[in-house]
Design brief:
alpha/beta, Rossmann fold, 4 domains, five-stranded parallel beta sheet, about 15% strand, elongated, serine protease, AAA_32
Length: about 775
């Protein structure tokens, strides 16, 4: 047992480096206290084999994201295999789009080049088709065509005359009529002819029909022949007008075989379309469309591999999508409406994601795994990918995946994925663990000072003087709840310094002082302490009934911590115990009311084991005991009240009162050894607030486990009252030490005869239990 002095509770000056101001400290160039994380990260980023993606594990606020981005950017300078990505029209498949990978900056260059050359192609085609040479060749063909037609029809006409008919070409075909002496005969005149002449005409008509059929065949053949000649003329004219432009393109982008093939197909396609398109406005729009490229990844501004952090990894944001537009109520899409995702922009480099985000969006985790396994990036909308809407749609060509995925998450998420997802183990083989604290050595505090200096420099803040620097270290230790540890919640430390700078500038100072740090801490707490104030108000009004004076049998002040997301605070709770004759053992009212968590239930069973082994080795524990947390209506969890519950039960059995001016926290094992608990700072300060309100008189204090002494980073006002003897903190190692403080009597140790000394607390407990046992046994024998 030890009553802690002011010196025991303050920080040793010897651990602090001698520095007058943060101005004299060089900013840190890297992350502090991350040696193991550095090694793991370096290993993961250096591994080229499949599956060595990285999962950074650590609490929020420890700088995981900044660490990942910084480290990835450092490694990105060594990588040169990142590219631009364009999608083009696929002239072979209507519902496809071709992907073309280009060196950084070449995608933008290609897009601009094709935009410019499409105008030149249109102008050249228009110029060629409007040229005199084209018109002359076209007229020559037309004249040649007409001459051949005339020649065939002339021959037919001569043969028809010899057969007694006249022929005529009409829009509906070739018609003929009988004639005599060069004049056509009307139907009436033909009927008046002699029968033998009529029969002669009819026989000749059959011969003429045969001749006409042959002529029609010849005319169709000539039409086909000259149509092909006209088409060949258009194709040749088109090819002549665009060939040099495409050759220029091929020369400029000759390093890409895929692009050269695309240019050749474009040229041939335009040539083929020349026989269909005659309207120059239609030409202009068509050429512009097919020569357009969709540049979905442009790395022209990068000097190193891309590092992409996607803070909103929805399915389309991460994997891209195909957009649609509505035309007359029908959805339409093409290659120009393909949109990239973060995985495309990061390809060739590093993609950083938050685990919680990718798990909360539907299908994202499953798609990410499939992409990493296949090593292919496929753009497909979520409805098509998972069969939600199996309609025909555009299918962009997949591209090869070459990136390192870095996921940031909490330990809980990591272990859930590791336990329940077999693919996770194969894909994320590198675990980078982020510690939430570091040893508070002099060297580490120097590094911490360097971090503070970098925060000042990066945010253009006032420098911190020596006392302000020490107060930041004090606050860091308070966050870690350990004098031997510094908190690695660097985000919170940064925020504190920035807020302190605000208060220093309010008073027109050019330096951040200790008062500014304390002011920032105080105001930060004031912004979130409303619920704590309401509880304190209820305590002050005695609506929550806690005694801080006098002595009461079977009643003790325990300590609890309430957590409300952004704020935690301690408050006392009344624990009562009642003992009576019976064999029910210990009845935990919280457990019986389903208001006890598993850990608390275990703690009650543990103290039962302790009491039985201490007081009932010679006879059975024939006693009924009930314990309760008064005015507590939520679930009680944890074992930090087991010391208080044990003493309350001992008081109830022995009828020795407990001091109400002292609160107790601590867990015990079955040997009665007091074990450390969490939230020691909040618990002490919670009871202190109530006692200070009612008036400190030197009798008030708190009992804590000896192992928790190193966790006490208390506020100055408590330290001052400890120094002045108005408030006390005792550290104990076992139950007996706490009994002596709370009951003003020695607990008592077993002598050689196995008895406790008279007048000791343990003596009164054992005697009471013995009498109850003998009384019950006597009643049994009388029966």
């Amino acid at each position: 047992m030890k009553k802690l002095s002011y010196k025991d509770l303050t920080l040793k000056n010897s651990v602090f480096p001698r520095v007058n101001s943060s101005k004299n400290i060089s900013p840190c160039e890297t992350f502090i206290g991350r040696e193991d994380a550095f090694k793991a990260m370096q290993f993961g980023l250096s591994m080229k084999q499949k599956g060595y993606n990285i999962f950074i594990v650590g609490p929020s606020g420890t700088g995981r994201k900044s660490f990942a981005i910084s480290f990835a950017k450092k490694f990105s300078k060594k990588k040169k295999n990142y590219h631009d990505l364009v999608y083009t029209i696929d002239l072979d498949e209507a519902y496809a789009a071709k992907a073309i990978i280009l060196p950084p900056g070449e995608g933008k260059k290609l897009k601009e080049k094709l935009e410019n050359i499409s105008e030149d192609i249109f102008k050249n085609i228009q110029k060629t088709f409007e040229s005199e040479e084209y018109e002359e060749k076209k007229k020559e063909l037309e004249m040649e065509y007409e001459e051949k037609k005339e020649q065939i029809l002339s021959e037919l006409s001569k043969k028809a005359v010899r057969l007694g008919f006249v022929v005529k070409l009409t829009p509906t075909g070739i018609v003929y009529a009988p004639q005599m002496d060069g004049k056509p005969l009307s139907p009436e005149q033909f009927e008046q002819l002699p029968e033998d002449i009529k029969r002669n005409y009819e026989e000749n008509a059959k011969k003429l029909d045969h001749l006409i059929s042959g002529v029609i065949y010849q005319l169709r053949k000539i039409d086909t022949e000259y149509r092909e000649k006209f088409n060949d003329l258009d194709k040749y004219a088109t090819l002549f007008s665009i060939d040099s432009l495409f050759e220029e393109l091929k020369e400029e982008f000759k390093y890409s075989e895929k692009l050269l093939n695309h240019f050749e197909k474009l040229k041939n396609h335009i040539v083929k379309q020349s026989v269909k398109i005659k309207n120059f406005e239609e030409w202009k729009g068509y050429i512009k469309h097919i020569l357009t490229v969709n540049l979905i990844v442009d790395n022209s501004n990068l000097s190193s591999a891309p590092v992409v952090f996607e803070n909103n990894p929805t399915y389309p944001n991460l994997f891209g999508k195909v957009e649609y537009i509505s035309k007359s109520g029908v959805l339409y899409t093409d290659f120009s409406m393909i949109r990239s995702g973060a995985i495309h922009r990061a390809n060739g480099g590093y993609l950083i994601l938050n685990a919680e985000d990718i798990l909360k969006f539907p299908y994202v985790w499953d798609k990410l795994k499939k992409t990493l396994i296949s090593q292919k990036i496929t753009i497909e909308n979520i409805d098509s990918a998972y069969g939600i809407n199996p309609t025909i749609t555009l299918k962009p060509e997949p591209i090869n995946l070459d990136l390192k995925v870095i996921i940031i998450g909490t330990p809980e998420l990591y272990y859930i994925l590791y336990e329940y997802d077999e693919d996770f183990k194969k894909l994320f083989k590198v675990k980078v663990e982020f510690d939430w604290e570091m040893n508070a050595t002099k060297e580490n505090i120097k590094q911490y000072y360097s971090f503070i200096s970098s925060v000042v420099e990066n945010n253009e803040l006032n420098p911190l003087n020596s006392k302000a620097l020490k107060r930041v270290i004090w606050y860091s230790m308070r966050l870690s709840e350990n004098k031997d540890k510094l908190s690695m919640k660097m985000g919170e430390i940064s925020s504190l310094i920035i807020e302190s700078d605000y208060y220093s500038k309010l008073r027109n100072a050019d330096t951040i002082t200790e008062e500014d740090i304390l002011n920032a801490i105080k105001n930060r707490e004031n912004r979130v302490r409303l619920i704590m104030d309401k509880y304190d108000e209820a305590l002050k009004k005695y609506e929550i009934m806690i005694e801080t004076q006098g002595k009461v049998v079977g009643q003790i002040n325990g300590l609890t911590v309430s957590h409300f997301g952004d704020f935690s605070f301690g408050m006392p709770v009344k624990i009562t115990a009642k003992a009576y004759v019976g064999n029910t053992g210990i009845i935990d009212i919280q457990r019986e009311s389903d208001l006890s968590g598993n850990i608390h239930s275990k703690a009650v069973l543990t103290l039962m084991g302790y009491l039985g082994s201490k007081y009932a080795t010679e006879f059975s524990l024939s006693l009924g005991i009930s314990i309760s947390f008064e005015q507590v209506y939520g679930v009680v969890e944890g074992d930090s009240a087991s010391l208080a519950e044990t003493i309350a039960i001992i008081s109830a059995i022995s009828n020795i009162p407990i001091k109400q001016s002292i609160a107790v926290t601590g867990s015990i094992n079955q040997h009665g050894v007091v074990q450390p608990i969490g939230g020691a700072i909040e618990k002490i300060e919670g009871f202190y607030r109530l006692c200070k309100h009612r008036g400190l008189d030197g009798t008030h204090g708190v009992i804590i486990p000896m192992a928790n002494v190193r966790n006490l980073i208390l506020k100055d006002e408590i330290l001052e009252d400890v120094k002045n003897g108005l408030f006390n903190i005792w550290a104990v190692s076992n139950v007996d030490e706490a009994i002596k403080i709370l009951m003003d009597k020695p607990a008592g140790k077993l002598n050689e005869k196995g008895r406790y000394p008279k007048g000791s607390v343990n003596y009164y407990v054992s005697e009471k239990l013995r009498k109850i046992h003998e009384h019950l046994e006597g009643k049994k024998s009388r029966r």
